[in-house]
Amino acid sequence: MTTNTHPYLQWYNGGLALARSILRCNQAAQDILQTAFTKTLTGSRLPTDEAAQRVWFFKVIRNACIDSLRFQQRFQAEESAELFATTIDEIDPIEQSERQQWVRQALLQLTSEQREILVLRDVNELSYADIAQVLQLNSGTVMSRLHRARLAMREQLLNLDRQSSLVQR
Amino acid sequence: MNSNQSPCLDVQEKLSAYLDDELTQQEQQRIYLHLQNCPNCKALADDLLQMRGDLKSAVLTSVDTEHLPRVLADRPARRLAFVGWALVIAAVLLLGGIVSWQFIREVFSESGVGRWLGIGVIAFYGGLFLLFLSVLRQRLIARKTDKYKKVQL
């Protein structure tokens, strides 16, 4: 009984990244992953081929995240609170380069919609068709939303760049 | 062509999809050609491309996201657990065998009421053991046809 035979374990890190980007909390994200893995073990009608399994798995994670946000009654207030959200980052700062810290910080400044689509595409490398299934959008919307998310991300990175050069002066 | 007025704007809208290789071949070609001639769009494309790589490494590189697969795949722990179970099962079989053999020998060396009492006890435990075997057999048959057998963690 080797762990490598559990087909969903290969997406653990990517799934965790998705849950973290939506929830912005490491512990809550790990709880979500736990729930998702329970579902993979007890679910009665799981997809059989790997591509469909991956889409299903990310969909489960995303839905569980949304449920948990609703449960916390934060879903509505989030959009307005986002600007003031303090970025609690639990990653060890020493192991990460400055550039990576910036990227993480910039990501946290985006809206949850933009964060989830960026993580699905750039971290988990889902195709547009798969993203469309996970987010339940059509693929034209995926294309434009992703592009806007990337432009917003770039804007945030440029902002951080400007701020740091001001500090250095 | 609707892209005649502002080719850059049109290209930039599709730049993300171009980098992700999600456009049709003609569009992919068209944007490639435009990028060769337009330093502005080329710069944006390079920026986005770099950001894409950065994002992956920034979000995935961390110690704590890797703990679960590593903990589960720890080979020494699995071997120790296997050896432990084997020893426990061997000990139970050995002790149970010795005790019941002694008991049976004593029962048959006795005479009168004690002997019949002993036989009753043996029959009781023997019956329980046979019932256990019958359930075990049913379980094994059910397991063979279990469609979730391959799901393991």
Low-confidence stretches of chain A: 80-89
Radius of gyration of chain A: 17 Å
> What value does the average pLDDT of chain A take?
80
So, CATH architecture of chain A?
Up-down Bundle
Biggest β-sheet description of chain A: none
Proportion of helical residues of chain B: over 70%
**Based on helices, strands and strand pairing, what is the structural class of chain A?**
mainly alpha
Helix- and strand-based class of chain B?
mainly alpha
The termini of chain A sit apart by 59 Å
Q: What is the tally of helical segments of chain B?
A: 7
Shape summary of chain B: rod-shaped
Tally of separate domains of chain A: 1
- Sheet with the most strands, sense and barrel status of chain B: none
Helix-strand pattern of chain B: HHHHHHH
Mean pLDDT of chain B: 83
State the oligomer. Answer: heterodimer
Number of strands of chain A: 0
Span of the ends, CA to CA of chain B: 56 Å
Content of β-strand of chain B: under 5%
CATH classification class of chain A: Mainly Alpha
What is this structure, in a nutshell?
The complex is a heterodimer of chains A (169) and B (153). With 169 residues, chain A is mainly alpha-helical. Chain A is built from eight helices and no strands.
Write the layout of secondary structure elements.
The complex is a heterodimer of chains A (169) and B (153).
Chain A: H1 12-23, H2 26-42, H3 50-71, H4 75-81, H5 98-109, H6 112-123, H7 128-135, H8 139-168
Helix pairs in contact in A: 1-2, 1-3, 1-6, 2-3, 3-7, 5-8, 6-8, 7-8
Chain B: H1 7-13, H2 15-19, H3 25-37, H4 39-60, H5 67-72, H6 75-109, H7 113-144
Helix pairs in contact in B: 3-4, 6-7
